[in-house]
Amino acid sequence: MKAIGFNQPLPISDPQALVDLDLPEPEYGEQDLLVEVQAIAVNPADTKVRASAQPAAGTWRILGWDAVGRVRAVGARVTGFQPGDRVFYAGAIDRPGSYAELQAVDARIVAHAPVTLSDEDAAALPLTAITAWETLFDRLRIEQPVAGAANAIVVIGGAGGVGSITIQLARALTDLTVIATASRPETVEWVKKLGAHQVIDHHQPLAPQIEALGLGAPAFVFSTTNTDRYLTDIVELIAPQGRIALIDDPKSLDIVSLKRKSLSIHWEFMFTRSLLGTADIARQQDILRKVAELAGHGTITTTRTRSLGTVSAENLRKAHALLESGQAIGKITLAGFASQEQGI
Questions:
Q1: Which residue ranges does the record assign to the Enoyl reductase (ER) domain (predicted)?
Q2: CB 71 within 8 A of CB 33
Q3: Domains in the chain with CATH codes
Q4: 309: burial class by Cβ within 10 Å (0-12, 13-18, 19+)?
Q5: β-strand 198-200 against 177-181: which pairing, if any?
Q6: Those residues with Cβ within 8 angstroms of residue 224's Cβ, 6 or more apart along the chain or in another chain
Q7: Which one, of 159, 156, 161, 85, lies nearest residue 124 by Cα?
Q8: Which of 64, 120, 118, 125 lies closest to 96, judged by CA?
Q9: 108: DSSP letter
Q10: Which whole-number Å values give the CA distances from 153 to 107, 149, 244, 260, 291, in the listed order?
Q11: Per-residue b or e along 187-223, where b marks 16 or more CB atoms closer than 10 Å to that residue's CB
Q12: Dist. CA 319–CA 22, nearest whole Å
């Protein structure tokens, strides 16, 4: 099968950072689906792993954690799926990914894809939607009010993939006032289009901008990027006993300042359930089912903003470079695999 992988961490400008491969078809277990991948989306996680992981000698690492495809085969213990089903999922970080024509994936983290969305539009949703849903409901527990706080959430990095779907889910499923950060005219327009009630500039001090809104101190902050840079401002702007969530990977994070306000901090890692085989691993399937239902009703929409063509090393290098530039809005997708006659 065709696949795209790497065998050493290299800058994305290096042609060997991601290369086209011909690999054996993957084996699948009794709890797995074997999926024919039709469309994928690219995430910051892809770029981070590519730039830092060192595959074992003589092996290739296959990235990719967003996919839409058709089920080719079903493991012996799988229920609820059959060959031919159109599915979507975010996969597992410790298994070969979706940069391949075929992928084996645990059926418990897979759901039927939204029928109202194209393959690429649907592929843009799984990883970020699960991340946002888990952050809002499992980590921040937004259904439990913070006494005396404004019923509001600040989403730092509102125009990114996770921020984009967080805004939509918060608007669709809660009565929170959504305050998103964005700095460029196009990103400000994007987050407003997705439903942000208020937009502030993350290149300026956040706390004074929040105060100027006149809403009071927000109960919740979701930081999707540069948390170490924003932490002082977050602690200043958030209400006492407020709750903070983050998904990025600062080299260090001094949280002593949270004590005075009795703030809590919650790290969201979408791969925890699949990586550690938690007792509630199937919650991710449930989340994806609900996301598909919301998309089917038009309550939320895809966050795909750009398609880069077929799944190939060249196009994936372009996608990684765009993500690493920090200028991407929403999600980048690719669909289909170029034929061997085209040199892939």
A1: 13-334
A2: yes
A3: 2-126+281-337 (3.90.180.10), 145-268 (3.40.50.720)
A4: middle
A5: parallel
A6: 155, 156, 157, 160, 162, 163, 166, 246, 247, 248
A7: 161
A8: 64
A9: G
A10: 33, 10, 10, 20, 20
A11: bbebbbebebbbbbebeeebbebbeeeeeebbbbbbb
A12: 21
CB atoms within 10 A of CB 289: 12
Query: In the structure encoding, which two tokens stand for residue 161, read together?
Result: 């993939």
- Amino acid, single-letter form, for residue 337: F
End-to-end CA separation in angstroms for the chain: 11
What secondary structure letter does DSSP report for 156? E
Lookup result for tokens 């809590």: 264
Find tokens 């400000």 and name the residue. 188
pLDDT tens for the 344 residues of the chain, in order:
999 999 999 999 999 999 999 999 999 999 999 999 999 999 999 999 999 999 999 999 999 999 999 999 999 999 999 999 999 999 999 999 999 999 999 999 999 999 999 999 999 999 999 999 999 999 999 999 999 999 999 999 999 999 999 999 999 999 999 999 999 999 999 999 999 999 999 999 999 999 999 999 999 999 999 999 999 999 999 999 999 999 999 999 999 999 999 999 999 999 999 999 999 999 999 999 999 999 999 999 999 999 999 999 999 999 999 999 988 899 999 999 975 344 33
Q: Are 200 and 261 in contact (CB under 8 A)?
A: no
Q: Which among 206, 221, 233 has a CA at the least distance from the CA of 265?
A: 221
| Residue that has been written with the tokens 């791969």 in this structure | 271
Q: Which of 60, 40, 10, 8 is nearest to 321 (CA)?
A: 10
CB 168 within 8 A of CB 187: no
| CA 263 – CA 239 distance, rounded (Å) | 8
How far apart are the C-alpha atoms of 286 and 80, rounded to whole Å?
A: 13
Which residue, among 121, 138, 113, 173, has the nearest Cα to 243 in the 3D structure? 138
